[in-house]
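Inputs:
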Amino acid sequence: MVHLNRQIDGATPGFARPLSKSERTRQRILDSAARVFASKGFAGVSLRDIASAADTKAGSLYYHFASKDELVEAVLRHAIEEMHQHVRDAVDAAADEGAAGRLKAAISAHTESVMERTDYAKALLRISSQIPDDVRERHNKHARAYGEYWGQLFNDARDEGAIRVDLDLTLARLLVLGAMNWTVEWPASLWSPESITSTLNKIVFEGIGTDDVDEEAVRALH
Amino acid sequence: MVHLNRQIDGATPGFARPLSKSERTRQRILDSAARVFASKGFAGVSLRDIASAADTKAGSLYYHFASKDELVEAVLRHAIEEMHQHVRDAVDAAADEGAAGRLKAAISAHTESVMERTDYAKALLRISSQIPDDVRERHNKHARAYGEYWGQLFNDARDEGAIRVDLDLTLARLLVLGAMNWTVEWPASLWSPESITSTLNKIVFEGIGTDDVDEEAVRALH
DNA sequence: GTCTATAAGCGGATAGAC
DNA sequence: GTCTATCCGCTTATAGAC
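Outputs:
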């Protein structure tokens, strides 16, 4: 699964200038690194592992990246931009469905990214707590923009009256994102992304509880 | 924060035989390993790191553990048993509150384990995807028992009529556990475990939406 | 039981041939 | 641009003194 989103990595959005050999190799290394990082973590992966997955040699990586840290930073940067773009596209496509509809679309898109779309999203979620501090600090700057985008989605839905007001909205957002992100730790998925997002959206918006059974009332019966 | 649950590690439950020097050292090494694994992952941690945290030398670890793999396996085993015990205690204490009340108690207890109780839980969640395959396979055997315990909690709540029947209950359980587990990835927690469990239980049982929440009824209960 | 010393090998990174 | 060869520090693990 090769990604050629030059709107993301390149400097000339929209233009179809063919990739140079060097750019193609660089991309192949990034893709391989994402795949290997996603399955084995950060520290557990050697540059020889990555080179082998990219069908080249460890020494050759240094023509494209100055260090392992710089390579992983590029992977994380690509990952967050790709996820953000995928979610933004889904939200834009649901533009006229109201804030609650847009939030649901975002939840579906983010889950899709984690579960099936690319190794970049999986690598991002799996290794962002294992990387050197300076790399993480730079990465957090990009990640924060994505978090704030989600904050806006939640705020809009609440302003629309679709979210109850007795919730800490930041906390709610982090918990919902956590439920999606943790799917990266599931073994081979027995469920389709559709069934997962459907179930998650039901739980998030309506809860698992039945309407007619009230917790306090149930307790009072005993 | 040292743990002396000999019901878990030892063979003689309930009896207060003093720990031998060797047992105490072994426990100190385990505690230190859990702490270091929790913050730096598995592959990124050297035996010197662990030894240093336990105030001893790398070579000395081999008197207590045959290999790094065996050490991490002991950490994971302790972690899962401690979490399971903590949740079971909370559920037992809520025995007469109905199945839904017991499930809420379990959610609170599991979140507590992840957020503040021990380094073991954090290490478990952070590294279980990074360890060698054979270690993970043995670990999964123990983890499965814990998963089945949660499955029973959800089943009981549904049988009681407290959970809507249009949900894939296994999927719901995994998503709810995921929301809790992902809190391990949060930076320094700005929230108390109480506010987190309160918000999470609201979302899980009632959802974030306003559609099916009877505001009058909620207010009347307080 | 714990230490020091060390073996054997893997890690990131560099130099220089092609 | 990519390769091979290599440096050198760090890793797990062992041996043997105390």
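Remarks. Residues 1-10 of chain A have pLDDT under 50 and may be disordered. Residues 21-22, 25, 56-57, 59-60, 63-64 of chain A lie near DNA strand D (CB under 10 Å from a C1').
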